[in-house]
Amino acid sequence: MRIHPTLFITALVAILFCFAIFHVGAGAIDIPVSEVFNAIASPISEHYFIVNNFRLPRMLISMLVGASLALSGLLIQGVIRNPLASPDVLGVTSGASLAVILLAVFWPQAPLELIPPTALLGGFIATAILLFLARHLLQRPAAFALIGIALATIFSAAIDYLLTVNPLEINTSMLWLTGSVWGRNWSHIPLILPWLAVLLPCAFLLSFKLDILALGDDTATSLGISVKALRVITIIVAISLASAAVSVCGSIGFVGLVAPHLTRSMIGNRHLLLIPATALTGAILVVSADLFARVLMPPIELPAGVLTAFIGTPYFIFLLCRYKNW
Amino acid sequence: MLRIIMACLLSYTALFAHADIKVKDEMGTFSIPTAAKKIVVLEFSFVDALANLDISPVGVADDGKANSVISAIKDRIEPWTSVGTRSTPNLEIIASLKPDMIIADVERHATIYKDLQQIAPTLILKSRGESYQDNLSAVLKIGKALDQEKKMLQLIADHDKRMDAFAKEINSDKSFLFAVSSPRGVYMHSPKAYAGGVMARLGLVSAIPNETEKAYISTTLERLVKANPDYLLVGEYGDATMIDEFKKSPLWKMISTVKNATYRETDALLWSKNRGMIAAEIMAKELQSFVK
Question: Residue B188 is inside which H or E element, if any?
Fold first, then answer.
């Protein structure tokens, strides 16, 4: 099933818009859809405070995080040419989590503002280790991904160890890492928006070369592309996006894996079109996940990370069974 | 000139007439113009503190279950609106209750302190993992913040007297230990934990006196045997928990408390979640009846 790309992207924008409105309207305090715009704009509205202080920033952060993670997954899958690749697989997410937990253990009094930059740093260090260890394997994407998996496993083991030894100290950081948009506000938007603003154009610039890379390493080389440099640059762009997302919301799994597949199955393999479509799909996934996280059992808030899988998986399996073009 | 002096004087007196209530808390200084009427609290220990003053909070982060608050406290105050879990309280509901004041836990809620401050002046104190002494000083700060310091001091003094009386009654040189058991594991509460602090206040010796660094210590059966408490109280979260596995082992029978038939299962909510003066006195009463 292929849909015309313009139509598909327009449909995604429309769906995202609907979910965004629902996200701002629904919750423990219900705001009728007709009231939503009024509540955003007019300070005299009784919902102005809740909407502008809690829901609107949360919705925007969900969008930005979803788009970043999805885009990161798309780039990694494009460059590793393996349908199982995603930022989680390469150890970025667990590297970021480990850094935050180490901070909590060795410097419990650290100001909370340090958590996002620490996560970011952890993601980058994990990438640096990965690129160093796999420096001779850049021509063999599968081996590269396996080193990523091995690293992710070591990081997760270290996290489990630290959590078992210091259950209490790590509480605040853990909450940060469960993949939740709870408690995020306007002050967190500058932590992710600049990254996306810079890296999205970078992704577009890379898109033509990634299309050529899809023809195979040899063909790409004969067409004048430095495959190794392209791989390293794309991985750095992808991992920066994922690290920025993790630094704001913790690990919201699955988005980076599923969103690129969903869009590929719909509009084919041209990266120029895949990039906006995948970013929109990721944004829809996380915005809807956070919406359901808040409305399923109020006043209890569930982590959005739990729901992305619930929303994405059934559709993902459906697609995998139905279309055998991977 | 005269006018300026008058204006200065007036503003000076106005400043004094509106002297704010100020309390040092875990994030700096809490300040509020007048004592709050509508209060939202985000930990159980703060409900206990308010109940002592016969103040009913309008909202409580009760994990969605009002029964998480022990009935002795629940019966003393009016019903409240649940504001979600203690770990991720629902900010929208808190805002919709339009409170005059919020009492939050530094351990759990430091990340959302700014959001809470936007809703209402927020007093942020120790609660999770607090010791018995920490709790009393937090209780006093709540009294100050509500402009009822004198009354709170009196209540603490009364509490002290009752605890002294319990200590005299119990008067035991045996070793004691409280632990919680969930399906995931058994956690001993050290002298640093609230329950451990209550035991120490009653003059009881802890079975793990050297564990002063951490409040809650994950334990295996072997470690429990080594601690060898004369009195063991276990609060269970759930029907079938790890302690039931321990009981199947032959090692279990080697612990003094099992040999002497002084092992008791008790209310985990009371002993672990509900910290405060009311809870402490109920714990003391339970201990007294166990020892007899």
Answer: strand B185-189
Query: Exposed/middle/buried for A10, CB within 10 Å: 0-12, 13-18, 19+?
Result: exposed
Torsions phi, psi for B197 (to 5 deg): -65, -40
Residue A5's H or E segment, with its range, is helix A5-25
In degrees rounded to 5, what are phi and psi of residue B21? -80, 130
Q: With an 8 Å Cβ cutoff, are A298 and B93 in contact?
A: yes
- Provide φ and ψ at A181, rounded to 5°: -100, 5
| A29, A171, A175 member nearest B96 (Cβ) | A29
Q: Which of A49, A169, A188, A295 should be substituted to probe chain B, the one whose Cβ sees the most B Cβ atoms within 10 Å?
A: A49
Interface confidence, given as ipTM, is 0.81
Which positions ≥6 away from B258 have C-beta within 8 Å? Answer: B232, B252
B183, two tokens: 């399906």
- What residue has token string 């349908």? A83
Which residues in chain A come in under a pLDDT of 70?
Answer: 1, 167-174, 176, 323-326
**Shortest Cα–Cα distance, B133 to chain A (Å):** 19
Most A CBs within 10 A among B111, B113, B189, hence the mutation to make, goes to: B111
Is B96 within 8 Å of A50 when comparing Cβ atoms? yes
pLDDT in tens, A15-53: 999 999 999 888 888 888 888 888 888 888 788 888 888
